[in-house]
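quick one before i forget lol
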Amino acid sequence: MSRLIRAVIDTQALRANLQTLRKLAPHSRIAAVVKANAYGHGLAHAARALAEADAFAVARIEDGIALRAAGVTRPILILEGVISEDALTEAAQHDFDLMVHDALQIELLRKCACQHRFVLWLKIDTGMNRLGFRCDDFPAALARVRQLPTPAREIRLVTHLARADDRQDATTGEQLERFKAATQGLALATSIANSAAILSRPDTHGDWVRPGLALYGVSPFANESAASFGLVPVMSFETTVIATRRVARGESVGYGGTWRAARDTTLAILAGGYGDGLPRSLRNGTPVLVNKERAPLVGRVSMDMIAVDIGEVADVHVGTSCKLWGPGLPVEEIADCAGTISYELLCGISSRRVLLEVR
């Protein structure tokens, strides 16, 4: 059955973006970040398309288990680590890599009876102030990890950048210097760069890079397009015209009457609203591609429908396919119209209501 609203995933674009990132960081291995259902692109589908990645990274253990169930044999890093004995046992059973960012996690590993030799990514907080050992506490944490009864198979050192998406901000350089100082003289693999740093700061690449947004063909920078980096949009968020209607000058449409027609015109009513992941905050004038022409959204986004002014677009009828974002209409632009970021739009797609069509 054909769905009125669908997220179409271009797996060829995913593979192309992975290769582009390899060229940009040729001396680093890639841990492809597929958390949050692969940023709304479908966890298992994305992992299969990214099979040539050196490893995968997910936020939580249940996503790692889902990847193993889908047949993924590559290393899988649990970015938030684990905080219970049961979760640690599961991590051992599935041979997950673990992020270690807290003394509690080291204690869990010390007491673990499973005798599994984990690959451990020891996180240093260089300024994000979210997870990780502060630089002053890191040497003691590393010493405790090295003294575990069951030695780690490998220890890697990692930090996370807070403002890499702002090229002008000095924070990234400051974090990098703190990381270098904390890890000086340690012959251990390092991982620093997220998507923004991969694209803009080769000095952060280290032994491992952790791309997320860029894999999906989206720019992390406010004023630079994904295309300028050779990246291709992976998701097309498409919908369908379910009705057309004439409105006279001065008439309003939708809840609250937030838009009134400045002239006699025709509206198309499209399937899709905040119940599907389309933000209610989208402003009047947000572009929608109708027959490859830009047509402005008018009125308030409702739960299941939006209205678009098609007075300047020819040959629109019930059943016409429209694009909410994707190639030709970057998700970054739509996010700006909603007063949010592209991450939120991609991750907000409702998998219960929207058909995920993988090509």
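fyi The CA atoms of residues 120 and 155 lie 5 Å apart.
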